[in-house]
Amino acid sequence: MSNHVKQFYTVAGKPILKPKLFQGTNGTYEQLAQEGIESVPLLEKVLTTALGRYKCKYEIGPPKTEARYKVKAAERGYDSPSENTDYCRAFLYVTSVDQIVKLANFFRPCNNSSVLLFEDTFAVPKISTDLRRIQIKIRLPNGHVAEIQIRHAKMKQAFEESHEAYEKVAAAMKRFPDNTSRPPEAQRIIDHWEQKRYDANHNAALRLPSLQKLIHERDFYMVGKTPVMLVNEPFTGERYAVVPRVTENGPMYVKDNSFIPELKNKKIAKKSDRDTFIAVSTRIAKEAVGQPILEVA
C-alpha cells in the first residue's frame, strides 16, 4: 500500500481502497502522544485558516489513553503505534448547512493536498448508526497525521450518547469477539447499545431537517463492464456520474459525465445496486495495484 497512500476521492464518496495511514515518525505510544500534543498549534493554524470568516467553535481533544489505544489496536490489527491517528484531534462545531458545505469544499482532497482521508456522512449517512459528520485525516507540516471532525453544534449531546454506546459495544465485543460462540446475553447487550447509538444519532438528525438537504441521492448502473453511480446533490442541485478509475494517485472514484447519455439507453445501461458497484470497483482497484488489499471502502 505504500505507493498508494494518497488515494483520494474527488467527489462525494470514498477512495476505492482505503489508504493505510501512518504517522510521519515511528515510536512508542508515549512518544507519539507527546508529538500529538506538540502538533496542536499546527492543527489550530489549519482550523483558523479553514474557518476564515465563520465564527465556528472548535475543541481540541486529548490523545486517547494508552489503554484505549491498545483496545483499538487489537480491533484494527495495528502492528505499531504509528498506525494510530488519534494523538492529535479537533472537533469543529458548525451551526448551518452552508458552513458544512463550505468547510467540506475546503477539506476535500481534490482541493487540499494535505488531506489523506475524507469521509462525509452528512452526504451518505452510515446505515447502521445514522451518524452525521465529516471525518478528516490530515498530514500536518511536521509529518504528524491529525484528525478533524466537523459536527453540527446541536448534535453534540447525541455524539456523546452515541460514543458512550459505542464504548459499551466495543467492551462487549472485546470480551466475546467470536459472534458464533457469543453467549445470548452478551449479544443482547451488544444489540441494545447498537440500537441506543442509532437512536441517539437518528433522533438528533430528525430535529435538524435542514441536514436532509445534504444527503446525496444515488442510483447505480452497469454500462457494459463499468459500474456507474449517478449522484444528485439536493443542496447544490448538481447531477453527475461517478466511475472507478485508475489514476496516477491510485484507484479513485472520479466524475465522468460522458456516461450520462448512455444511462438513458436501457439496452446499454442496466440498473444495479450499491453492493455490486463496490464489489466491481474493488476488483478493478485490486487488479490495478497488483496485490490483495485488506481494507476496502
What can you see in these coordinates?
Residues 1-6 and 293-297 have low confidence and may be disordered. The strands form 2 sheets. This protein has a 5-stranded mixed β-sheet with strand order 1-2-5-4-3, covered by helices on one side. Strands 9-8-7-6-10 form a 5-stranded antiparallel β-sheet. It has 297 residues and is an alpha+beta fold. Helix content is 36%, strand content 21%. It has 8 helices and 10 strands. The chain is globular, with a radius of gyration of 20 Å.
**What radius of gyration results from the CA coordinates?**
20 Å
Element pattern in H and E: HHEHEHEEEHHEEEEHEH
Could you estimate the helical fraction of the residues in percent?
A: 25-40%
Looking across the biggest beta sheet, what order are the strands in? 1-2-5-4-3
Q: What is the 3D shape?
A: globular
Helices and strands: which structural class?
A: alpha+beta
Topology:
Elements: H1 29-38, H2 40-51, E1 57-61, H3 66-76, E2 89-94, H4 97-107, E3 115-120, E4 134-139, E5 145-152, H5 156-175, H6 184-206, E6 217-223, E7 226-232, E8 239-247, E9 250-255, H7 260-263, E10 269-271, H8 274-289
Parallel strand pairs: 2-5
Antiparallel strand pairs: 1-2, 3-4, 4-5, 6-7, 6-10, 7-8, 8-9
Quick description:
The chain has helices at 29-38, 40-51, 66-76, 97-107, 156-175, 184-206, 260-263, 274-289; strands spanning 57-61, 89-94, 115-120, 134-139, 145-152, 217-223, 226-232, 239-247, 250-255, 269-271. The protein is an alpha+beta fold and 297 residues long.
Question: What are the salient characteristics of this protein?
Answer:
10 strands; disordered C terminus; five-stranded mixed beta sheet; globular; disordered N terminus; 36% helix; 297 residues; five-stranded antiparallel beta sheet; alpha+beta
